[in-house]
Structure of Metallophosphoesterase:
Amino acid sequence: MILVTGDIHGCADIGKLSAKANPVQKLMTKEDFLIIAGDFGLVWNNDAEDLWWRKWLDMKPYTTLFIDGNHENFNLLETFEEVEYCGGKAHRIGNSIYHLKRGEMFELQGKKFFTMGGAESHDKEFRELGTSIWEQELPSDEEYAHALATLEKNDWKTDYVLTHCAPSSIQHEIAVKLGLKNEYPDNKLNAFLEEIGKKIDYKAWFSGHYHTDMTSEIEPSFNVLFNKIVKI
């Protein structure tokens, strides 16, 4: 079984992963996966709170996977051991918690997942560089190049796409629906996702970031997740 949900922001929105809120987990094993579409936030200070909640996740019956969002401590995240995991590169955060790196292709239960984390913080003026916001929140040129190489290697085919933010056209649609037309300005990552979205062959695309649950009218296979947990 593979489940996908949106941001948990550390412990702020982790309640949706409780057994009461997500009872299907009782049927899962460590061979099953719950994927968080960015803003994991439990690699922030490595303090007692981070460690307690990561232990809580490790005790879940499933394996937790996440892509990075914008609200991550990237300097700390990059200190974790990098491992080969299910066909791609990941950081091992716990016994059964893995950060799926950008521009990778993973195979989970016979299904392919292309990952491209990152997003631009729209509240950056209220954050301090190196303390609550990091330059790595948007991909580097090397990460864009690696993502393209991965897609070429896989003939531009995958089953699922996992990103934190959305392609430009879909982000605009989301902003309009939420009445936040000036909240999410386009950037290089949105434009990149727009371009690869025209070429990549996929079944469904999942993102977080926008703190809402929505299916795009522009692309019906595009799912924005926050509280909702979707079974693939």
